[in-house]
Design a protein that fits this description.
The chain has seven helices and 15 strands. By secondary structure, it is of the alpha/beta class. Helix 5 links the parallel strand 11 and strand 12. Helix 2 packs across helix 3. The chain binds NADP nicotinamide-adenine-dinucleotide phosphate (NAP). NADP nicotinamide-adenine-dinucleotide phosphate binds next to helix 2 and helix 3.
Length: about 300
């Protein structure tokens, strides 16, 4: 099969190569998915799991990409819940070969059915951004209707999901980003927008939940805005700041079939809009990931037409 591999961490996306690899086999509780569309997050190449297995042994050449939408072609021993020919989407294991390939073997529990009226490109755009937003707001952040949320990077892949889901849940949403992102963030549900390059973040006043996708100084200044009992939720590594009278949570997104189904149902009924950027074929993926153009939305690799 065709697959993109990486062998050299220092090379970043410039070290990606499109090569021929053997098709993966389904292990216990696995399925093999024929990949129709895949998602990739640039920061994957900084994660240890891209380079080493769970015993910390070198696993290069490794296939990056963890988001997938496709069709099940084989079941491993003991696999239940999915069947051959079924359309699925989900989030592949961080420590195994991923989805920038024609086939991926992954645990069935990390996939959910993809309804027949949802395109594979849409399916592949949702797992990381949708689940991260869902888990950060509702599981870790325990968001309640009537609270206020500072949604950083609200025109980005995760932030646009945060803004929409928080708004639907009855929160007041303050989106942030660069000046050029203002309208997009408002279109994704932010009630107001803070341009982090020119506006004073401190003018926002108090908020109940900060959803941080940026870190550093922005995280620190945001933590200071959190009201008593509020929460800093960050997805860019261990929290470096915490509210004076509240909690700080950092987490790595996990796959969850029920949550994937909630998310895709919202896309079907119009409550959630996707934020898809450039869509490229697998042959053009390496060039797309190395492009210097500003990314707008989630890049999706369409592996099968
Ligand atoms: N822990 C987890 O489970 C998890 C899950 C998903 C994502 N993440 C992490 O979350 C981060 C965001 O991911 P994403 O896919 O949403 O990325 P993205 O699509 O690039 O969105 C980030 C948004 O924030 C904006 N932004 C970043 N720094 C800014 C600054 N200093 N001032 C103003 N705007 C700024 C970006 O604008 P520009 O493009 O102009 O910089 C972009 O619009 C990444 O670091 C990713 O690795 C973690």
């Amino acid at each position: 099969m065709k697959a993109i591999v990486v062998t050299d961490q220092a090379a970043g996306t410039a070290g990606m190569k499109l090569v021929e690899r053997p098709e993966p086999q389904a292990a216990i509780n696995d399925v093999v998915v024929q990949v129709y569309a895949a998602g990739f997050v640039n920061t994957e190449l900084e994660w240890p799991s891209t380079w080493a297995d769970r015993r910390d042994h070198d696993r290069t050449p490794s296939i990056p990409g963890h988001e997938v939408a496709g069709v099940v072609t084989a079941l491993g021993y003991g696999t239940t819940g999915l069947s051959v020919g079924q359309r699925v989407f989900g989030l592949a294991d961080w420590h195994r070969d991923g989805t920038l390939a024609e086939y991926v073997a992954m645990e069935a529990r990390n996939l959910a059915p993809l309804p027949g009226d949802v395109d594979f490109t849409v399916g592949a755009s949702l797992p990381i951004s949708g689940l991260t937003a869902w888990q950060g707001l509702f599981q870790h952040g325990r968001l309640q209707a009537g609270q206020s949320v500072l949604a950083h990077g609200a025109a980005g892949a995760v932030g646009s999901m945060v803004a929409q889901l928080a708004r639907e849940a009855g929160a007041y949403v303050i989106g942030t980003g660069r000046a050029a992102d203002r309208q997009k963030a408002l279109d994704f549900g932010a009630n107001e927008f803070v341009d982090l390059e020119t506006d004073a973040l401190e003018d926002v006043g108090g908020v109940d939940l900060v959803f941080d996708v940026i870190g550093g100084d922005i995280q620190k200044r945001s933590a200071a805005l959190i009201r008593a009992g509020g929460m800093l939720v960050t997805v860019v590594g261990p929290a470096e700041s915490r509210p004076t009278d509240g909690l700080a949570v950092d987490f790595v997104v996990e796959s969850d079939r029920a949550q994937l189904s909630e998310i895709v149902q919202r896309v079907r009924d119009g409550r959630l809009r996707t934020n898809i950027g450039k869509v490229s074929a697998l042959d053009d993926a390496v060039a797309t990931f190395n492009s210097t153009e500003r990314r707008a939305g989630k890049a999706v690799i369409r592996v099968r037409p």
